[in-house]
């Protein structure tokens, strides 16, 4: 349930305001402190509830375009305050936003459509993402947000870190760095009650063991990556930093718009041919955006920034990813998996186009209007193809918070 006067995603300023209000109301139980600064000098705040040595760390805002986590974090903090069982020998710590700079650039607090969502879209290039930068950068080049997050993990030594993520269109799933026995049942029950599909074939977790539908356990170090060209190997992310203290990380994904195409476990009649078609479309769509970018670049001389860097990064991923899909047998063969790849193939060039459009629009470039029409066409086609239906914000938050609580309780039993 949103603490805001209207159902929308809160800004970082609003998150900080409500966290500070909680500490004012419960000064003996809550504390708010700054644990770092972003590259642009924005503060990173940690809200703590309780004083026990055993800790849960909840991270919101690691990806700017996945805004549900902020609302979930506020709901969880209030729930922990009011439910003594959750504080039984456990303190809870909430990193309000891991990437406040990114959050300032994603500007769709209450999107009414996929088009509106994409017209305000921002997701930084992987080297600029707090959780993923260790996968692609040497330690001496890590951004300050990453260093702040790892310092918090080093201080708290959480038995469980939960990072709150989401998807624009699809279903809900969980990624675990170690299994949490018993989590799959409450996760599935919550999704069913709230009419949120479970993404059983998520391409993010292809080939991983599953402890239940939609609950995926990351493979051990040394296992082959499903998509070798992708640089962001989860095993090198901050998700694994908790392992040095015996902890684990749960990544809880919820959709903004749901699609019933992502939870179909039936075998696909010809997955290899379908994936090849999707790879061709991915290349074609990316080429169309690349053509606009190359044509506009001479007019953008001197223009740089996170939007343009991110658009170019997304386009650079396409050739390798398409080759991964084309040159190797499908890693999974269900209808759900092919649907997830279909969504990925639409999402990547659409995001590049949306961010490039923002750059061109701000420069009043002549290529902005036709690119806006392309973003509109692709957004509408994405929604139509997947039968997109909005998941009420309160349902997004309720499902994500229920899953976090279930993970904390079951992991506590495991750690005891």
Overview of the molecule:
This protein is of the alpha/beta class. Helices cover 44% and strands 14% of the residues. It has eleven helices and ten strands. The protein has helices spanning 12-25, 68-82, 100-105, 114-119, 144-156, 184-193, 271-296, 306-327, 335-362, 368-385, 393-415; strands at 30-37, 43-49, 55-59, 91-95, 160-170, 173-176, 210-212, 215-217, 248-258, 389-390. Strands 1, 2, 3, 4, 5, 6, 7, 8, 9 and 10 form a ten-stranded mixed beta sheet that branches. Helix 1 runs parallel beside helix 2 and helix 2 crosses helix 11. The chain is globular. The protein starts with 11 loop residues before the first helix and ends with a helix.
Secondary structure layout plus pairing:
Elements: H1 12-25, E1 30-37, E2 43-49, E3 55-59, H2 68-82, E4 91-95, H3 100-105, H4 114-119, H5 144-156, E5 160-170, E6 173-176, H6 184-193, E7 210-212, E8 215-217, E9 248-258, H7 271-296, H8 306-327, H9 335-362, H10 368-385, E10 389-390, H11 393-415
Parallel strand pairs: 3-4, 3-5, 5-9, 6-8
Antiparallel strand pairs: 1-2, 2-4, 6-9, 7-8, 9-10
Helix pairs in contact: 1-2, 2-11, 6-11, 7-8, 7-9, 8-9, 9-10
Summarize the structure.
With 416 residues, the protein is α/β, with parallel strands linked by helices. The chain has helices at 12-25, 68-82, 100-105, 114-119, 144-156, 184-193, 271-296, 306-327, 335-362, 368-385, 393-415; strands spanning 30-37, 43-49, 55-59, 91-95, 160-170, 173-176, 210-212, 215-217, 248-258, 389-390.
């Amino acid at each position: 349930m949103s603490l805001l006067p209207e159902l929308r995603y809160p800004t970082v300023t609003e998150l900080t305001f409500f966290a500070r209000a909680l500490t004012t109301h419960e000064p003996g139980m809550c504390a708010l402190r700054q644990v770092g600064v972003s590259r642009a000098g924005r503060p990173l705040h940690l809200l703590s509830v309780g004083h026990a040595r055993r800790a849960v760390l909840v991270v919101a805002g690691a990806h700017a375009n996945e805004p549900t986590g902020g609302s979930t974090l506020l709901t969880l903090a209030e729930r922990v305050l009011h439910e003594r069982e959750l504080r039984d020998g456990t303190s809870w710590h909430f990193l309000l936003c891991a990437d406040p700079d990114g959050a300032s650039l994603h500007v769709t607090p209450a999107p009414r459509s996929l088009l509106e969502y994409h017209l305000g879209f921002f997701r930084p290039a992987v080297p600029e993402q707090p959780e993923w930068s260790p996968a692609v950068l040497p330690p001496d080049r890590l951004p300050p947000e990453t260093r702040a997050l790892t310092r918090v993990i080093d201080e708290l030594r959480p038995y469980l870190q939960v990072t709150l993520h989401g998807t624009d269109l699809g279903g809900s799933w969980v990624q675990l760095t170690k299994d949490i026995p018993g989590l799959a049942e409450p996760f599935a029950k919550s999704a069913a009650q709230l009419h949120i599909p479970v993404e059983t074939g998520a391409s993010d977790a292809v080939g991983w063991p599953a402890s239940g539908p939609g609950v995926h356990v990351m493979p051990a170090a040394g296992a082959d990556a499903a998509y070798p060209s992708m640089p962001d190997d989860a095993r090198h992310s901050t998700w694994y930093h908790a392992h040095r203290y015996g902890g684990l990380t749960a990544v809880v994904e919820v959709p903004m718009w749901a699609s019933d195409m992502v939870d179909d476990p039936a075998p696909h009649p010809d997955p290899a041919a379908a994936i090849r078609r999707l790879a061709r479309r991915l290349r074609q769509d990316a080429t169309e955006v690349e053509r606009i970018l190359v044509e506009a670049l001479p007019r953008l001389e001197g223009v740089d920034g996170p939007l343009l860097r991110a658009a170019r990064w997304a386009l650079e991923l396409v050739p390798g990813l398409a080759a991964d899909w084309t040159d190797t047998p499908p890693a999974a063969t269900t209808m759900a998996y092919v649907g997830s790849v279909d969504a990925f193939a639409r999402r990547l060039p659409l995001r590049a186009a949306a961010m490039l459009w923002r750059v061109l629009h701000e420069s009043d470039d002549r290529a902005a209007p036709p690119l806006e029409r392309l973003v509109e066409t692709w957004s509408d086609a994405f929604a139509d193809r997947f039968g997109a239906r909005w998941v009420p914000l309160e349902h997004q938050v309720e499902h994500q918070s229920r899953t976090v609580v279930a993970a904390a309780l079951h992991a506590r039993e495991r750690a005891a």
